[in-house]
Design brief:
- Helix 4 packs antiparallel against helix 5, helix 6 runs antiparallel to helix 7 and helix 7 packs antiparallel against helix 13.
- This protein is 43% helix and 17% strand.
- By secondary structure, the protein is of the alpha/beta class.
Amino acid sequence: MSDIIAAVSTGNQVSAIGILRLTGNGCADVAGKVFTLNNGTALSEAPNRKLMLGELHDKEGRVIDQCMAVYTRAPHSYTGEDTVEIQCHGSPAVLAAGLDALYLAGARPAKRGEFTKRAFMNGQLDLTQAEAVIDLIEAETADAAANAAGQVGGTLQKKLSPIYNDLTNLCSHFHAVLDYPDEDIEDFGLNAYEGILKKDAKALDSLLSTYGQGRILRQGVCAAIVGKPNVGKSSLLNALAGYERVIVTEIAGTTRDTVEETVMLGSTRLRLIDTAGIRETEDKIEAMGVERSKQAVENADLVLFVCDGSQELTEEDQAVIDTCCEHENAVALINKSDLGSKVQPSDLPFMNIIPICAKTGEGLDLLAALVDELFEKDAPCDGSILTNPRQFDAIRRAYDAILRSLQGLRLGLTPDAVLTDVESAMEAMGEVTGNVVREDITARIFERFCVGK
């Protein structure tokens, strides 16, 4: 019998329903000491996958809830082991008392991600599916959820499995000929595999090309708000956030550091960075803020240049323009449109220019439409978009190794030299799928999970 683990799977907040989850062969016997069915049947004898009404008891035997439980027998469960879920009313006190009773009855506390780790270890999920579970839990947009759900369903694994199989066939053919020279095995020739290696390299390159979109899907668009002091950058962030996130005053240089806030603008999730006004200053603290502003521009996916449209452009404005106008996704916002305009779109060297009023919200709908257009999805969010940085790194290494093997083949290197790179590609891909994965990598992956999942 494996260890029987238990946890609250629905968090610690008051809710309509709270779930106590157990897994491990024999967990129905443990749960049956705490949860008794109203029909008098032992929980371990309950029908498979059928919700049953009963009473939950604390460690002193007192009834603390009238609730439901479902028993799912191995191997047709999430973890591949026997599992029990007790669906209570969502009182944190009831859940805590029920959990204590389960511990006394023979269960132990589950570790972070241990339910999903058992699903992986028992072959219910491959590693791409297991990692997608936490992405699905943490998804903040419908697109991110849809892509994670596709990966939980095995979309990424289906893309990688044929490539891994090609490399396995190549290596096994070579070693079979080498180890069994007297057997009737087709002669090994590297040139016969060149087309396969090219096809696999192309497939990996195509997958790697989705990572830019995947990073934005997972993290949101990093948008730096830049401009000289007192043009309304903080007011813009507050308007987009919907509350006074940043202090706004008439004093120039109020913002000394970068301030971040995540918002939904149209259908795009933005990680807004309100930066210190970019200008020459002798104030050491403000100068540090200005330097961070410039770094924010370099690292941003989107730059929102803000100027005060009620005032003529100055040298300070021009300095900021020079900093950001060549950015691939730079948008100029002529702010304070309610005060009249002394700045015309023709005065600014940007492809995208929108007059706005951060104070009233005028023009923000146009900004939302433009941002959605700039970051329109290139690929369907069906699980085929690579979002995980660990997976990206491993697939990139696999791709590089296949390119090296192709180069070695063209240079006429011996098969064993070429296959060294093919095996490196297999090892890197195995880190993604779980075919070859070290224990430290496995532990690090499941540390991201919450307890109870």
